[in-house]
Amino acid sequence: MKIKEHINQIINDALIKTSIELDSVSVTEATKVEFGDYQFNGIMPLAKILKRNPRDIATEVISSIKTNGAIVKVEVAGPGFINIWLNDEWLSSQASTLLADERLGITTKENPTRVVVDYSGPNMAKQMHVGHLRSTIIGDTLANLLTFLGDEVIRQNHIGDWGTQFGMLIAFLEELEDQSGSENLRDLEQFYKDAKGRFDVETDFATRAREYVVKIQGGDEHCLQLWKQFIDISLGHCEEIYEKLAINLSRDDVRAESFYNDRLPLVVEHLDKMGKIEVSDGAKCIFIEGDEVPTIVQKGDGGYLYATTDLAALWYRSEVLGAKRISYVVDARQAGHFKQVFHIAKESGLVDKDVLLEHVAFGTMMDKSGKPFKTRDGGTVKLADLLDEAVIRAKDAITAKDEYDTESLDELAHIVGIGAVKYSDLSINRESNYIFDWDKMLSLEGNTSLYQQYAYARIMSIFKKYDGTIGNEIKIGDEVEHRLVLLLIRFEDILQKAAKDASPHQITTYLYSVTTLFMRFYESNPILKDGIDEATRGSRLAIASLTAKTIKRGLSILGIGVVDKI
User: CA 370, CA 351: separation in Å to the nearest integer?
Assistant: First the structure.
């Protein structure tokens, strides 16, 4: 339910009744119970315009607000704030309706937006490492969220498969006796190092590698066959990681650099026709006011750069795919690049002005000492190794492991371990650097996935002990229940805000608030204890059920599973 929108409308109607118009009505959640559930602070800027006392205006507004529906009480506070209390009966009715709905009352867009989410982007010459983790997790969550809210989401995995290094790699691949290449490519890092070693010291090999680049780009059938084989095996390694992480990327979502190859000269031609190109030292450049360094779209030798490919991709996604929002989930260090590319795309007409282009930037993964996350010997941490370790550590963190057989324990450890890695990343503002801490992410305390999963499991244990039917009728009985139900009803508002801002941490922050408040409710309001009347027990069971469904739905958007017992 869009509860904030509902209250905004009530305030807006009151303003209209008092002949006052406001361009933007916005309420905020009150931070203290005594200040109400919501607060409207739009009177202050209005008073300056009308040159009136803000408290007088606020008093006039609240006189037009009915207190026999959603709102039970309003009052003027401070210099002109309006504090709002919601009716328990109204909240109970809304919560009961949400509980009876599979989607928890969360609507889907009547007019969905077609959105392209570009994320993951592994390097075809190497195994995926921790540097790919944040893009993959954040991007997948954003795509899940937008899909759930009703947008038409097109996932895109932009991989680098076109360039000089591929001549080197394919020349080396051709020399292998085993043409399947599977065994030789099992460790892509070593394969790349071996090929690079040959390239650096053997003139004949280097010459042959460069010839392969020309042949690949020229469409040579044999070279393309080897190239496709290498890409296929490389993607196979990526798909193993995606499966472990429960990432919703498939081969159909791959849009490699080579996909846009035919469009590159057309991009340059279009920019030239629009009068955007200036030639500098033989290179075709675009100079943007305020930027000292120009954007090169074609080198003097005729070669193209990353900017050209990204412009071609934007053009394709806007013109062919019809996207109205294009989100690039790429680390913050690329901010300057995307600022230039987005500016050029809009100013040149490659992308329509009404298309939202956004760089969903994120910070660097760091270790506890605040340095970039590396292996003990200073090498790059392979993502496969990190995920395997997460599962091993999760098994140690499971308190009820003695109650499982080996297969079930392994499955549970996978859900907990992978969930811990994903949630830990998503629980912070994506633009911040991220401290990777095993102990913190697998803790039963604090804002962790394990804390969420534990709360869900606790609720499931209540249901197992109860031998009756869990209904949908909620009747708020005290302040704790009021706060919890109000928080649960706010779920849709949170999801909408997280989608608008492309900020998954808003969901994790909300879930942590839900589980924390539920634990308080669980301690203060017994559910199965003897002596509780059936109506109260039924309502508390329903509140617990709505809590569990909210946790499960929220975690599922994050790509994290729940368990009945930990």
Answer: 40
